[in-house]
Structures are given as C-alpha cells and as structure tokens.
Amino acid sequence: MDLELARLQDKLPDLQEKHRNLANLGANIKHWVSVATGTYEMAKLSRAMPADVKTTRTPAHAVSNVRAQIKVLAAQRVRVLQSGVPAADLKEQASAFVQTQRENGRPKLVFGHTITFQAQFNALVDGAWTTKQDIGAALAWLDPVAFEKKLHDEIEMLPKPTLAMSSDERAAKLLELEVELLKCEREEEALIELSEEQGAAVHRRLDADPRAVLGIVIASAKKSKPERIRAA
Questions:
Q1: How far apart are CA 150 and CA 136, in angstroms?
Q2: Does 92 share its domain with 77?
Q3: Which one has a higher pLDDT value, 29 or 228?
Q4: How many domains does the chain have?
Q5: Distances in Å between the alpha carbon of 23 and those of 12, 19, 200, 208?
C-alpha cells in the first residue's frame, strides 16, 4: 500500500494540471457556446493522418510545429488589425466629411420688414454630451475648398504608419488569415486526438478555437460565404 500510495502521489501533480487545463478550457467553451450566434453542425473533417506526423517522431512534435504556425498567423492578424489607414483614403474621407458638413452648416436666414436680417448658424456637434455648436460645419459652408485643403495638409503631417491598408484590403486579409488559422487549429486538434489514442495526450491550449475543439462549422457557411472568426 505504501508503494501504491507513493506512485499515486507522484502522479498527482500531473493529474491536477491536466484537470485544471480541462476545467479552464471547458469554461471557455461553455462561455463561447452561450454567446455564439447562428446554426452549427458537425464538420465533415478528414481523418487522414496529418502530413506533419510523417516528418516528426511523435504527434507531440507535430503539435509543436502546428502551434508555431498558429503563433505566426496570430501575430500577422494582430499586425493587420493594428494597421493604419492610407493617406489617400483619409483624404477621401476628409473630402466627404467637408461635403456633409457643408450641407449641415447652411445657415438659417431670418429677415422681414420689421426684423433685422440675420444668418443663424445653428448646426450642433453630433454625439456631444452637451449642446455644442459645430464650428466646422460653418467653416465648411463658408469656404469648403480652403477647409478641405487644410484638412488634407493636416493629414500629410500625420506620422506614416508602418503598415497601411484600405478597409477592403484589411477585411480581405483578416478573412484570409482567420480561415488559415482555423485550418491550423483543426489540424492541431486532430493531432491531439491522435496523441490521446496513443496514450501520450497533449494539453489543449486555453485559447483554442471552440469550433476546432468541438469539430463544428456554421451550417450556412458552406452555401453562402466563408465563415469569419471574430477577432479577440
């Protein structure tokens, strides 16, 4: 009994760590399921052995390689998320802003035989906590060309971002990276399941995509557009 007790005590730290990992992962997945929207169904995933296993000694080594790819893709996604807006796009937005402000800044004319002529600029700043007159709207109406040029000059003086992408380019790149990330996470899950079958289970990451862990896909994604992963 003493030998058996010593053996179990030696295994206790590993079992506690495994339980802690599974409990935390389970809590994360339960939270994701509670806020998930859309209809999901089981994914028809290939059960073929990943090619990476052929070049490594164990599934654990293959998992390490896949996780390195996931780390690179996640870093690229963060870089794209933090990308700036090109100066040309900012100037287009500034020009559109001036045109909108020009209409909003049009004054109200007050006149009459017994009333002194007045031009009342009553435009207010949208979203302000208190009533605040929108001076920019008045300036846009008085001289839209000069106002637009001033804004363009200010944009030219802004620091140039390391990576600048248009909104369409940014959205397309994020979708591409997110699809690639999900593919890698599904490969990682397949390798983890393989390691469990071989008796040397690999712990799942706490931030693993629940769709990869559960093996599900959005039901409508196959017939409409590729599924998108909401950025953390």
A1: 12
A2: no
A3: 29
A4: 2
A5: 16, 6, 19, 14
Domain that holds residue 41: 14-83+165-222
**CA angle, residues 32, 172, 213, in degrees to nearest 5:** 25
Q: What is the mean pLDDT of the chain?
A: 86
Residue in 19, 14, 66, 112 with CA at minimum distance from that of residue 209: 66
Q: Of 157, 183, 211, which closes a domain? A: 157
Residue 25 has pLDDT above 70, yes or no: yes
In a domain, 8, yes or no: no
Q: What is the pTM for the complete model shown?
A: 0.71
The CA-atom distances, in angstroms, between 64 and each of 17, 61, 80, 175, 205 are: 19, 5, 24, 24, 11
What's the pLDDT score for residue 222? 46
Give domain status of residue 116, yes or no. yes
